[in-house]
## 1
Amino acid sequence: MALWGARFEKEADERLNDFNSSIRVDQVMYHQDIRGSIAHVTMLSRQGIIPEKDKELIIETLEEIEADLETGKLAIAPAAEDIHMFLEAELTKRCAKKGAEGAGKRIHTARSRNDQVALDVRMYGMEQCREVIKLLRELIEVLCKKASEHTETIMPGYTHLQRAQPITFAHHLMAYVEMFCRDTERLWDAVRRCNVLPLGSGALATSTYPIDREYTAELLGFDRVCENSLDGVSDRDFAMEMAAALSIIMVHFSRFSEEIILWSSWEFKFIELDDAFATGSSIMPQKKNPDVCELIRGKSGRVFGNLQALLTMMKGLPLAYNKDMQEDKEALFDSFTTVKLCLTTLIPMLETCRVNKENMRQAAAKGFINATDCADYLVRKGLPFREAYGVVGRLVHSAMEKEKVLETLTMEEYKEASELFEEDIYEAISLETCVKNRRITGGPAPEIVKRHIENIRKTFF
Ligand code: ARG
């Protein structure tokens, strides 16, 4: 009979049990469940709700259970309904063996699985956020290091995937660093809002025992207790927020992956992945494929799907707990697992990739990406920008017809376009000058990007 079987005349159908069970997914929370129980009984005994000796036996036994789970001496029963039921049954069994069955049977005083599961998922989610943050910091570190090696590596910057203006590889990488810093902040933010204790909400309306929720919160390291018990058991905002933050992370990984895929193509050849982080083809002997990036791009779909699943699962639920909410864990945990998996491969892949400076430079030398600078030159000589823009537009047109670039036009050709052009035009449109002259905060000039890297290192590490 199930722990809740007392009011039933029949055993539950096996098919119902299978369908109802969440142990496959929630067993990863055994540590949180045990920590929560230890804090709960500590509080119960301090309040005189359960005897001191029962508390001691419960804590000792729960710690034994945890150690046995960790060493594999105790296996989680796949037929159990969920991790909470499994641990309570195991505790009761072990207490009985020690001649104090009553102790184990006291653990669920003033508690419901509804506040218990809300507690466990919050604790587990916050821990997972911290793990992702740690990996994101590693990623940021690797990118800052790569960037610091390439503050002078000129490459074309793009808009519409058309060559636009010269930038550096460091400037490009640091754009991703900014995204990953925001991702880290978003996760901290989710943790901050999640750090509220739901335990003590009971099934939905707290309890009649004189429990001390503030004390439990203190024991578990929560910032405060939730102010409304209905909200305490039925709030899954934290899960949606975490899933949303993880989705945005996947958007960033996916965009980055897309660029790496392009950059490692024969058409670009800006970077080359290390052999250890690329794959081959079973039929085409020459192939070297960026599978890691493609998988990351592909996996973003399941993380977005998990967010959608959570939003949809929650949107029609009346207060307070409903069993629909059991579905929260599979979606949320899968998002954490996926993001961590992506990070553990992305980091070494980026660390080991080689940068082909010459190809970046060559690509930057074509496509008239210094045309804006050419117009700005005329502006400095007094021409209004729109007129300068027109002069350079015509210049680009005629250069294209002659299969030339701005750097290879003769002084006569420049003079024909405008009398304002002088010898110093060549210096003004050199790619190095174009990059160096953009020394506004946020710009690609080496000194500015170096300062950015320094700031990140100072504030983030
Ligand atoms: N396994 C359940 C879940 O994950 C635990 C809470 C069950 N509560 C209940 N009243 N049936 O949501």
## 2
Amino acid sequence: MLAEQTAEETDEAQAARTLEQLARLLRQLDAAYHQADAPLVDDATYDRLRTLNTLLEKRFPGLRRADSPAQDIGAPASGPFRRHRHMVPMLSLDNVFGREEFDAFINRIARFLGLTEAQAHELAFVAEPKIDGLSISLTYEHGRFIRGTTRGDGTEGEDVTANLRTMDDIPDHLPAPYPDVIEIRGEVFLSKQAFLELNAAQERAGEKPFANPRNAAAGSLRQLDPAITAKRPLSLFAYAAGFCSAPLAATHHDYLKQLEAWGLRVNPLSLRVGNAAEAEAFMARLARGRSALDYDIDGVVYKLDDRALQERLGFAGRAPRWAVAWKFPAEQAITRLEKIEIQVGRTGALTPVALLQAVNVGGVIVTRASLHNEDEITRKDIREGDLVHVQRAGDVIPQVTGVVLPRDVERSPYVFEHVCPICGAHAERPEGEVVWRCSGGLTCPAQVVERLTHFVSRDAFDIDGLGERTIVEFHELGWLRTPADIFRLHVHEAEIAGRDGWGKLSAHNLVTAIEARRTIELSRLIYALGIRRIGINNARLLARHYGSLANWRQQMEKAAIIGSDERLELGSITGIGTAIADELVAFFAEEHNRATLDDLDSVLARVTDEEMVAEGALSGKTIVFTGTLVTMTRPEARAVAERLGARVSDSVSKKTDIVVLGEKAGSKVRKAAELGVTTMDEAGWRLLAGMPPITPRHE
Ligand code: IVH
């Protein structure tokens, strides 16, 4: 995308500068690739830079240099896109629930871009109703609809082209002019009217009704037979851009107009708002009109209008920094709390759960709700049998917010037993915490089973054939107590084969699946440990930052000292806050956790970083920024580098791959030269990172 875009937009003077930088940059990349056998970037990035060079030379033949990289032999071309992989990932959105949080969102943008308060005040947004449906991606090649996919995990989705073709709102052809390739994103949904009719038909046919329009839309889109989908009146609102092979509109507002011109439906309520006050007013208007709409919405999405700024802001974790979902306040209902059940999690936490008489809360049937902890039950004086208020906000687990008073009959207060309901061990509550934890540790089947189930789950070790039921079975037999025991199961292969429901083949398959996982990516291993607050995204951040298991362990143990360099480094990783850092330190402070890691280390063949190598243009590389950058702030530069898979460091060492020299770069220049580390100026770095040529920040 950027190669063509940059080539088309460039004037001659800029082109000459870019060609000069490209000649230098491609020479450096070639040297690293051919001589050092250590490519600095992935093939796709290399190809993009070469293509840019070719396009510029074609457009300005007079500028072709004597040392043009076009004379050299390039790297192998990267393969075609995989069928279900989105060309540009499909992101989700961060939520805000009020004006204060919305203002904080704007402040974050301002800080990232280095804007003054006055400039921040002038940022315009496009407000769009947030449709409660399913996001999809439509690919058009040369104006023809060729593929449609669901969001999936954001990176890869399911191909539902045949079903989408049945929808009236999705044109088969875009009227010219159109880019060669474009991904258009939008929301598929079912109107309230269509939902009611569909459920009536379901009931007539003796089938289960859908819980809400969103589920009905999802079910309709995943039909194996497109003829069934065709009978369901699905609708689409288009609202975002994925990949695009040519420059798109400069503002999101104009992009929406372009979508309309192509015959796609854009929500007619979408509106450009000039500041936070206008955003708030839009929110209030829509909240009033909400029930009159023929489709479900759960808030408003605010998107920064300026697409060049969107590009600079990029995303953090799974959500863009330039957009946010402002949600309506939660929906409430009243129902009877029949019983309080205590669940035991993999960290031993005892969580009280309310079992409710089924009730419809804002379109969703709710039968369970979280009660959080003992203090919450006491504070709200919730008793078994009470009528209670239940609320849900968006995808959040439903909650019991209070009791309907006065009670219809008097009941005795709830007594929270400080005993594990599964293993009978006593529960403990560390000082300053609200959660009671089972003290049974690995003798508590609930904890062991939960923990091992997490260990083999999809984003962790992903072992086929080892589900919760099997884990329970092997745990009862005494074969499985710790994660490392999984890798000792092979000694029981013959016994497994002889058990009920098993055979020679299935036992062998299980052992093979386990063997294949003796080599594992570091991020999966970190996630598998089940440390509180470490989901797969944080695990990836850590893996990317620390590179190896040994280094991570060592750094985490040193980070135990508050104020140590290691603790500061941990806190400086974008996305890792204090609470997460505390959890990591606490995990490593426990002798039994270190023992678990030692044990695992002894059964694993290798812990690798391949996952990241496949991911970003600069995966596994270490970059140092020095001196003053003029086109971006330091946090922005760091974020861009990390997005490309690189690790950003403050000091130059033998391990450094690239040093980016800003203005007035100091001693690090000499150090880099001494160590033979590749250096480049800010313009070179922008090229490498696929960013448009310089537009200085201070004008
Ligand atoms: S924009 C970076 N716009 O909300 C852009 N999303 O919570 C991300 N959604 O997965 C999406 N209406 O399914 C966008 N006008 C709208 C939307 C919208 C509904 C959904 C979408 C997305 C989810 C994120």
